[in-house]
Protein backbone atom coordinates (compact mmCIF):
# COMPACT_ATOMS: atom_id res chain seq x y z
CA UNK A 1 0.00 0.00 0.00
CA UNK A 2 2.76 2.45 0.96
CA UNK A 3 4.78 1.48 -2.12
CA UNK A 4 1.73 2.23 -4.34
CA UNK A 5 1.28 5.64 -2.73
CA UNK A 6 4.97 6.42 -3.16
CA UNK A 7 4.84 5.35 -6.81
CA UNK A 8 1.78 7.50 -7.41
CA UNK A 9 3.59 10.44 -5.79
CA UNK A 10 6.58 9.96 -8.04
CA UNK A 11 4.34 9.89 -11.13
CA UNK A 12 2.61 13.13 -10.03
CA UNK A 13 5.97 14.81 -9.45
CA UNK A 14 7.24 13.72 -12.87
CA UNK A 15 4.04 14.93 -14.51
CA UNK A 16 4.36 18.34 -12.83
CA UNK A 17 8.01 18.68 -13.90
CA UNK A 18 7.11 17.64 -17.44
CA UNK A 19 4.30 20.19 -17.57
CA UNK A 20 6.61 22.98 -16.36
CA UNK A 21 9.24 21.99 -18.94
CA UNK A 22 6.61 21.97 -21.68
CA UNK A 23 5.49 25.48 -20.74
CA UNK A 24 9.11 26.70 -20.72
CA UNK A 25 9.77 25.22 -24.14
CA UNK A 26 6.54 26.73 -25.44
CA UNK A 27 7.46 30.18 -24.13
CA UNK A 28 10.99 29.99 -25.54
CA UNK A 29 9.72 28.80 -28.90
CA UNK A 30 7.14 31.55 -28.97
CA UNK A 31 9.75 34.19 -28.16
CA UNK A 32 12.08 32.92 -30.87
CA UNK A 33 9.22 32.77 -33.33
CA UNK A 34 8.13 36.31 -32.50
CA UNK A 35 11.72 37.53 -32.91
CA UNK A 36 12.10 35.70 -36.20
CA UNK A 37 8.87 37.22 -37.52
CA UNK A 38 9.91 40.79 -36.66
CA UNK A 39 11.01 42.47 -39.89
CA UNK A 40 14.31 44.32 -40.11
CA UNK A 41 14.00 48.03 -39.41
CA UNK A 42 15.49 49.97 -42.34
CA UNK A 43 16.91 53.38 -41.49
CA UNK A 44 17.86 55.63 -44.41
CA UNK A 45 20.53 58.31 -44.10
CA UNK A 46 22.58 60.54 -46.38
CA UNK A 47 26.23 59.48 -46.36
CA UNK A 48 27.75 61.35 -43.42
CA UNK A 49 30.02 60.94 -40.40
CA UNK A 50 26.74 60.38 -38.49
CA UNK A 51 26.95 56.76 -39.72
CA UNK A 52 29.14 55.28 -36.92
CA UNK A 53 26.78 56.62 -34.22
CA UNK A 54 23.78 55.16 -36.02
CA UNK A 55 25.58 51.85 -36.49
CA UNK A 56 26.34 51.77 -32.77
CA UNK A 57 22.64 52.34 -32.05
CA UNK A 58 21.84 49.51 -34.45
CA UNK A 59 24.21 47.16 -32.59
CA UNK A 60 22.59 47.98 -29.28
CA UNK A 61 19.11 47.61 -30.77
CA UNK A 62 19.99 44.14 -32.06
CA UNK A 63 21.07 43.13 -28.57
CA UNK A 64 17.61 44.24 -27.41
CA UNK A 65 15.79 42.22 -30.06
CA UNK A 66 15.40 44.77 -32.87
CA UNK A 67 17.32 44.08 -36.07
CA UNK A 68 18.29 47.36 -37.76
CA UNK A 69 19.85 47.98 -41.16
CA UNK A 70 21.43 51.38 -41.90
CA UNK A 71 21.03 52.28 -45.58
CA UNK A 72 23.15 55.13 -46.94
CA UNK A 73 22.19 57.39 -49.84
CA UNK A 74 24.58 59.72 -51.66
CA UNK A 75 22.15 62.61 -52.14
CA UNK A 76 19.45 64.48 -50.23
CA UNK A 77 16.49 63.59 -52.43
CA UNK A 78 16.48 59.80 -52.48
CA UNK A 79 15.92 59.22 -48.72
CA UNK A 80 12.49 60.85 -48.91
CA UNK A 81 11.56 59.07 -52.13
CA UNK A 82 12.64 55.77 -50.57
CA UNK A 83 10.54 56.47 -47.48
CA UNK A 84 7.48 57.27 -49.58
CA UNK A 85 8.01 54.07 -51.60
CA UNK A 86 8.31 52.02 -48.37
CA UNK A 87 11.84 50.94 -49.27
CA UNK A 88 12.88 52.19 -45.82
CA UNK A 89 10.95 52.66 -42.57
CA UNK A 90 12.47 55.89 -41.28
CA UNK A 91 15.03 58.41 -42.46
CA UNK A 92 17.39 60.63 -40.55
CA UNK A 93 19.15 63.38 -42.51
CA UNK A 94 16.92 66.47 -42.68
CA UNK A 95 15.81 69.30 -40.44
CA UNK A 96 12.24 70.60 -40.26
CA UNK A 97 12.55 73.43 -42.82
CA UNK A 98 14.08 71.01 -45.35
CA UNK A 99 11.29 68.49 -44.64
CA UNK A 100 8.57 71.09 -45.10
CA UNK A 101 10.05 72.10 -48.45
CA UNK A 102 10.43 68.45 -49.54
CA UNK A 103 6.78 67.77 -48.69
CA UNK A 104 5.73 70.80 -50.70
CA UNK A 105 7.87 69.89 -53.69
CA UNK A 106 7.30 66.12 -53.66
CA UNK A 107 3.77 65.91 -52.32
CA UNK A 108 4.93 63.74 -49.41
CA UNK A 109 3.02 63.29 -46.18
CA UNK A 110 5.58 62.52 -43.47
CA UNK A 111 5.85 62.99 -39.73
CA UNK A 112 8.93 64.12 -37.80
CA UNK A 113 8.67 62.08 -34.60
CA UNK A 114 11.89 62.89 -32.71
CA UNK A 115 14.87 65.25 -32.94
CA UNK A 116 18.49 64.23 -33.21
CA UNK A 117 21.52 66.49 -33.50
CA UNK A 118 21.88 70.09 -34.62
CA UNK A 119 24.85 70.56 -36.93
CA UNK A 120 26.71 73.82 -37.36
CA UNK A 121 27.36 75.19 -40.83
CA UNK A 122 30.22 77.50 -41.75
CA UNK A 123 31.81 79.59 -44.44
CA UNK A 124 35.03 77.90 -45.61
CA UNK A 125 37.84 79.02 -47.88
CA UNK A 126 41.14 77.64 -49.09
CA UNK A 127 41.97 80.96 -50.77
CA UNK A 128 41.60 83.57 -48.02
CA UNK A 129 41.94 83.77 -44.26
CA UNK A 130 39.67 86.79 -43.76
CA UNK A 131 36.52 87.99 -45.48
CA UNK A 132 38.26 91.31 -46.13
CA UNK A 133 40.71 89.50 -48.41
CA UNK A 134 38.03 88.37 -50.87
CA UNK A 135 38.58 90.10 -54.20
CA UNK A 136 35.90 92.00 -56.08
CA UNK A 137 33.88 89.48 -58.10
CA UNK A 138 34.93 86.49 -55.97
CA UNK A 139 32.95 83.28 -56.43
CA UNK A 140 30.90 82.04 -53.48
CA UNK A 141 29.09 78.69 -53.40
CA UNK A 142 25.93 78.10 -51.39
CA UNK A 143 23.39 75.28 -51.26
CA UNK A 144 20.92 75.09 -54.14
CA UNK A 145 17.87 73.95 -52.18
CA UNK A 146 15.50 76.69 -50.97
CA UNK A 147 16.08 76.07 -47.27
CA UNK A 148 19.81 75.47 -46.92
CA UNK A 149 20.53 78.11 -49.53
CA UNK A 150 18.67 80.64 -47.40
CA UNK A 151 20.65 79.56 -44.38
CA UNK A 152 23.84 80.19 -46.36
CA UNK A 153 22.68 83.65 -47.41
CA UNK A 154 21.93 84.54 -43.80
CA UNK A 155 25.46 83.50 -42.89
CA UNK A 156 26.91 85.65 -45.69
CA UNK A 157 24.93 88.55 -44.26
CA UNK A 158 26.34 87.87 -40.78
CA UNK A 159 29.80 87.96 -42.34
CA UNK A 160 29.05 91.45 -43.66
CA UNK A 161 29.41 90.38 -47.28
CA UNK A 162 25.83 91.01 -48.42
CA UNK A 163 22.62 92.57 -47.14
CA UNK A 164 19.21 90.95 -47.47
CA UNK A 165 15.75 92.47 -47.41
CA UNK A 166 14.71 93.24 -43.83
CA UNK A 167 12.88 90.42 -42.10
CA UNK A 168 13.77 87.54 -44.41
CA UNK A 169 14.51 84.18 -42.78
CA UNK A 170 15.94 80.85 -43.95
CA UNK A 171 13.66 81.02 -46.99
CA UNK A 172 15.75 83.87 -48.41
CA UNK A 173 16.85 83.61 -52.04
CA UNK A 174 19.40 85.50 -54.10
CA UNK A 175 16.52 87.75 -55.20
CA UNK A 176 16.41 89.05 -51.62
CA UNK A 177 19.95 90.46 -51.83
CA UNK A 178 19.75 94.26 -51.69
CA UNK A 179 23.46 94.98 -51.30
CA UNK A 180 26.51 93.12 -52.64
CA UNK A 181 29.43 95.57 -52.40
CA UNK A 182 32.09 93.05 -53.48
CA UNK A 183 29.98 91.96 -56.46
CA UNK A 184 30.21 88.36 -55.33
CA UNK A 185 29.29 85.74 -57.89
CA UNK A 186 27.01 83.39 -55.99
CA UNK A 187 26.74 79.90 -57.43
CA UNK A 188 24.36 77.27 -56.10
CA UNK A 189 25.34 73.62 -55.73
CA UNK A 190 23.79 70.57 -54.13
CA UNK A 191 24.49 70.89 -50.42
CA UNK A 192 26.28 67.56 -50.14
CA UNK A 193 28.70 68.63 -52.91
CA UNK A 194 29.72 71.98 -51.43
CA UNK A 195 32.65 70.44 -49.57
CA UNK A 196 34.22 69.37 -52.87
CA UNK A 197 33.89 72.84 -54.38
CA UNK A 198 36.53 74.46 -52.18
CA UNK A 199 39.29 74.12 -54.78
CA UNK A 200 37.15 75.82 -57.40
CA UNK A 201 35.56 78.74 -55.53
CA UNK A 202 36.82 81.47 -53.25
CA UNK A 203 34.34 80.83 -50.44
CA UNK A 204 31.75 78.15 -49.79
CA UNK A 205 28.99 77.40 -47.37
CA UNK A 206 29.96 74.13 -45.75
CA UNK A 207 28.72 71.43 -43.43
CA UNK A 208 31.43 70.16 -41.09
CA UNK A 209 30.21 66.58 -41.49
CA UNK A 210 30.61 66.68 -45.27
CA UNK A 211 33.85 68.67 -45.03
CA UNK A 212 35.25 65.90 -42.83
CA UNK A 213 33.94 63.16 -45.09
CA UNK A 214 35.43 64.77 -48.20
CA UNK A 215 38.74 65.55 -46.47
CA UNK A 216 38.97 68.86 -48.31
CA UNK A 217 39.59 71.03 -45.24
CA UNK A 218 39.69 71.03 -41.47
CA UNK A 219 36.02 71.00 -40.36
CA UNK A 220 36.95 73.43 -37.57
CA UNK A 221 38.56 75.94 -39.94
CA UNK A 222 35.48 77.90 -41.02
CA UNK A 223 35.92 81.66 -41.13
CA UNK A 224 32.49 81.93 -39.50
CA UNK A 225 30.05 79.42 -38.00
CA UNK A 226 26.37 79.79 -37.34
CA UNK A 227 25.18 78.60 -33.95
CA UNK A 228 23.36 75.48 -32.82
CA UNK A 229 20.77 77.30 -30.75
CA UNK A 230 18.03 77.19 -33.41
CA UNK A 231 16.32 73.83 -32.93
CA UNK A 232 14.47 74.29 -36.22
CA UNK A 233 17.71 73.04 -37.79
CA UNK A 234 17.88 69.86 -35.71
CA UNK A 235 17.96 66.67 -37.77
CA UNK A 236 14.73 64.74 -37.42
CA UNK A 237 13.72 61.09 -37.45
CA UNK A 238 11.04 61.10 -40.15
CA UNK A 239 8.42 58.41 -40.85
CA UNK A 240 5.24 57.79 -42.78
CA UNK A 241 2.05 58.52 -40.78
CA UNK A 242 1.27 54.80 -40.42
CA UNK A 243 4.62 54.22 -38.67
CA UNK A 244 4.37 56.89 -35.97
CA UNK A 245 3.84 54.31 -33.22
CA UNK A 246 6.09 51.56 -34.60
CA UNK A 247 7.78 50.19 -31.45
CA UNK A 248 10.93 49.23 -33.38
CA UNK A 249 11.45 52.84 -34.46
CA UNK A 250 10.73 54.17 -30.98
CA UNK A 251 13.21 51.72 -29.45
CA UNK A 252 15.92 52.67 -31.95
CA UNK A 253 15.42 56.39 -31.30
CA UNK A 254 15.49 55.85 -27.54
CA UNK A 255 18.83 54.07 -27.88
CA UNK A 256 20.25 56.75 -30.20
CA UNK A 257 19.28 59.54 -27.83
CA UNK A 258 20.36 57.95 -24.55
CA UNK A 259 23.22 55.52 -25.22
CA UNK A 260 26.61 56.66 -23.85
CA UNK A 261 28.31 54.66 -26.62
CA UNK A 262 26.32 56.51 -29.29
CA UNK A 263 27.22 59.87 -27.72
CA UNK A 264 30.88 58.84 -27.71
CA UNK A 265 30.70 58.19 -31.46
CA UNK A 266 29.06 61.58 -32.03
CA UNK A 267 31.75 63.32 -30.00
CA UNK A 268 34.43 61.51 -31.95
CA UNK A 269 32.89 62.50 -35.27
CA UNK A 270 31.94 66.12 -34.56
CA UNK A 271 33.64 67.39 -31.42
CA UNK A 272 32.09 70.77 -30.60
CA UNK A 273 30.46 71.17 -34.02
CA UNK A 274 27.14 69.71 -32.94
CA UNK A 275 24.59 69.80 -30.14
CA UNK A 276 21.76 67.48 -29.15
CA UNK A 277 18.19 68.75 -29.58
CA UNK A 278 16.24 66.40 -27.30
From TrEMBL:
A GO cellular component annotation in the UniProt record: membrane
Signal peptide: 1-36
InterPro entries: Lipoprotein_NlpA, TAT_signal
Record key words, sorted: Lipoprotein, Membrane, Palmitate, Signal
Localization of this protein: Membrane
Superkingdom in the source lineage: Bacteria
Coiled coil, from the record: none
PANTHER family hit by this protein: D-METHIONINE-BINDING LIPOPROTEIN METQ, D-METHIONINE-BINDING LIPOPROTEIN METQ-RELATED
Family of the protein in this entry: Belongs to the nlpA lipoprotein family.
Protein name listed in UniProt: Lipoprotein
Amino acid sequence: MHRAVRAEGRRSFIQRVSAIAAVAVSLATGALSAHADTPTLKVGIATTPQTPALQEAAREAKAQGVDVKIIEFTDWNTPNAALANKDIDVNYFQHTPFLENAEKQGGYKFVAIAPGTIMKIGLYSKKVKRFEDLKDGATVAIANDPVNGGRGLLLLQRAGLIKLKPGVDYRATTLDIVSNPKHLKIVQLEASQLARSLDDVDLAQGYPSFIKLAGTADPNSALLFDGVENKAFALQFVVRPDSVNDPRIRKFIEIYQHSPAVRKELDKAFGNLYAVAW
